[in-house]
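Spend some time on the protein that follows and explain the fold to me:
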Amino acid sequence: MKDKLQLMKEKIKLLNEANKAYYQEDREIMSNFEYDKLYDELKQMEEETGIVLSNSPTIKVGYELLSNLPKERHENIMLSLDKTKEVSALKQWLGEKIGLLSWKLDGLTIVLTYEEGKLTKAVTRGNGEIGEVVTNNAKVFTNIPLNIAYKGSLILRGEAVISYSDFNKINEQIPNVEVRYKNPRNLCSGSVRQLNNKITAERNVKFYAFSIIRADVDFNNSRIEQLKWLENQGFSVVEYKKVVTTDIEETVKWFEEGISENDLPSDGLVLTYDDIQYGESLGSTAKFPRDSIAFKWVDEIKETKLLEIEWSASRTGLINPIAIFEPVDLEGTTVSRASVHNLSIMEDLELGIGDTINVYKANMIIPQIAENLTRSKNIKVPEHCPVCGGETEIKKDNDIKTLYCTNDQCLAKQIKAFTHFVSRDALNIEGLSEATIEKLIAKGLVTELADIFHIEKFKDLITKMEGFGEKSFNNLVNSINKARKTTAARLLYSFGIGNIGLANAKLISRKFNDDWEKIQKATYEELIEIKGIGHVMANNYINFFKDEKRKGIIEDVLKEVEIEVNKHDLDGIFDNLTFSITGSLEHFKNRAELKTAIEERGGKVTGTVTSKTNYLINNDSLSNSSKNKKAKELGIEIIAEEKVVQWIESGKVE
């Protein structure tokens, strides 16, 4: 009994840590599969021993909240749902009753209150008893009604979610792979709990109602009628189907077939009695309400053979183990690799080359290792970085072991330089995200900037990489070949010289008429003659081109590109003039186009108005914009866009 109690305590500790990470810190330290397995094992041990410890997650609903948002106690406690993975259990649970089966959305549960037809309060689920007040944030959800026709008191529950498509768009805008969001739920939770609702508004959060707590309306004792009524009030409701015992199996299959097309994150289904009074009469246990039950997908698990562990280095120096196994078909796709996340998980699984392992897709999406059936534990942790050969170091943080490269000059840590080199304002190579560059470097396909121009040699390897196929590879090669023709300014900017932005790169290139040899050999005295180039920039520039290693990198790149001479040297009417732009435009598509027209003729465009600004371009000279006010304070002339057009057409500033 003593050993069993100790084992129960260990499982409780792990489960509570996982809960805290998931609910309070918006991160995951174990997969759903692992959590459910641990939870079920603990529950079985509690039933066998008759002992339930006070901190067991089988009786606790949630954790204390950590934020600066106001707190409020829920009128009705919010319990979590009991769950099953068996359709037969759903049939038995429903019996002769009518039910509604709906998606179990994976976001953040919110309680909304309306008084006299207006949204007055929004509170998160929190720990089930006390939630955080997020009313201002809820008001900027993209599909929520702020006013409804019903003027009585209404309290309802629903799920705030961010769709997969919006999640991917937001992540694509974050250049640093390491700080990208792990999944839509984490992003949604962080977005809804912002202190600044401007951020919430930018995240495209949606709300889907799933139940009514209070409303003085006759719903004919039907949950389905409640949802229909909510739709008539302007709410989006969770997608559902009316079911009876005889068609549950068919309906579950219908939902399952829709997973791949469902843009909203979901981790299963919910079955609820349509009969409101009957459901309420059942009451609840200490943890679960009895009127609803959750159905979690039975993970499709396939047995396969572990072929190797690939060690993948990232820009932070972290080296992650990736399991490569014999390909298996899972949830409609072929998978052959899965992240093992860290050394601790690898050690817990006791992985070894040649082991027989079970793999599955978490939430039918992310490949994971469920179990290791052989446990030969023959994998050696590398003592040297797979990218640079530098020494590695094992670090331990919160009992989690991770592997790091200790070499500050490791190529994997220079990924930012590669990302900048291919960025839109530099070489503009589409299809080379930071994540892709990281994979190319990790596989040893790219070791310096010039290597990017020769990745067509590795077609067989790259087309097998996740996210790449024949079409995307061909598009990438075409984009690389297109980038071979570039301008001196773009090339200069692409090397990432400290403090030399695109505008300054254009000024320097124009100064030397796009002659690269002169650009590279520019002297300190020549540089500071250029308006906008100060002492710090000039010194950074000189020191950059003095570095012998960088000279070699630049020489290799020059062999791959052709520098086109710009025509800006023929028309320098805006030489030594600095402009700022504000307000709407009529002659140019946007500010970027006007900015280009000015810079091509020797001028400089800044985002702010300072004493160094010569002209503020604003078609509304009488507006009370901050730039107008600043220009008037400094005595800077405010000109209309038409004036700039006239100067360009006449070839002189009058």
About this structure: The domain at 486-570 is CATH 1.10.150.20 (DNA polymerase; domain 1). The CA atoms of residues 327 and 396 lie 33 Å apart. The first helix runs from residue 2 to 23.
